[in-house]
Amino acid sequence: MIEFHHVFKRYQGGHEALKGVSFGLPRGEMAFLTGHSGAGKSTLLKLIALMERPTRGQIILDDINISNVKDRQIPYHRRKIGMIFQDHRLLFDRTVYDNVALPLIIAGVADRDIPKRVRAALDKVGLLNKEKQLPIELSGGEQQRVGIARAVVNKPPLLLADEPTGNLDPELSQDIMSLFEQFNQVGVSVLIASHDLGLIARMKHPLITLKEGRTIRNELAEVDFA
Ligand SMILES: Nc1ncnc2c1ncn2[C@@H]1O[C@H](COP(=O)(O)OP(=O)(O)OP(=O)(O)O)[C@@H](O)[C@H]1O
């Protein structure tokens, strides 16, 4: 599903956030990405979503070298990916329903199909009864679930989550991780950046550990440079 071949990322200003990262995430796998603050975890996820471009190396997503994806094709590329952020990035002046419907509207889904799909996504995260509420009226864990419903409403084959439990207590964090496992069990590939080593250890999924932009531990296959 995802292959990184000796990927480097240097930001404007000269900081090298990734220094030759290689790994392969097979289709249908769930894995964790960990490492100290500033190790390059968010950068790695942003490269997959084409929120940033690599300086060197190749990233293959679904057999496509994403360096060849032109800027105008990025919205189509992103439809393969559901992104979940620590701060959820919900629209706080819109209802739960409207937040989850937004990706469908952007993707041009027919109006008549939207309610059913929004409710299916809210049902999966256990929030069917909250659709008329504003995000501010929900708990932190519920807000994160809305973020997850929004990420999965288009049924992307890949979920990328950046510290999705960073603001949650241990019990809620476990619930959110279990939710990711449920999506994984129906075939969705999942890559989660997290600091929470205790939670990661309990989940028993492969781990990639970054240190100062390099892979220091990789329980996923290293990929050969073709
Ligand atoms: N847009 C940017 N411009 C310049 N430098 C950046 C930019 N984004 C990130 N960096 C730098 O790249 C390095 C890696 O950042 P990144 O956000 O990928 O780390 P991280 O492992 O996700 O950290 P955290 O766990 O704190 O979120 C850091 O030193 C950071 O300061």
Runs in which pLDDT lies below 50 for 5 or more consecutive residues are none
Distance separating the two termini: 16 Å
In terms of DSSP E residues, the strand content is: 25-35%
Strand order of the largest sheet: 6-7-8-3-9-10
- Count of DSSP strands: 10
Q: How does the overall form come out from the CA principal axes?
A: globular
Radius of gyration: 17 Å
Please write the CATH class name.
Alpha Beta
Helix content: 25-40%
Largest sheet: 6 strands, mixed
CATH architecture descriptor text? 3-Layer(aba) Sandwich
Family: Belongs to the ABC transporter superfamily.
Main location: membrane
Membrane topology: Peripheral membrane protein
Pfam family, one: ABC_tran
Give a written overview of the molecule:
Keywords: ATP-binding, Cell cycle, Cell division, Cell membrane, Membrane, Nucleotide-binding. This is Cell division ATP-binding protein FtsE. Belongs to the ABC transporter superfamily. It is found in: Cell inner membrane; Cell membrane. The protein has 226 residues and is of the alpha/beta class. The chain has a single domain, classed as P-loop containing nucleotide triphosphate hydrolases (Rossmann fold), CATH 3.40.50.300. It is built from seven helices and ten strands. The chain has helices at 41-48, 74-78, 96-106, 114-124, 140-152, 170-185, 197-203, and strands at 2-10, 16-25, 30-35, 56-61, 64-65, 81-85, 158-162, 189-193, 207-211, 214-218. Helix 3 (96-106) crosses helix 4, helix 3 packs parallel to helix 5 (140-152) and helix 4 packs across helix 5 (140-152). The two termini are 16 Å apart. The mean pLDDT is 93. The structure holds adenosine-5'-triphosphate (ATP). The site of adenosine-5'-triphosphate has 12 residues, from helix 1.
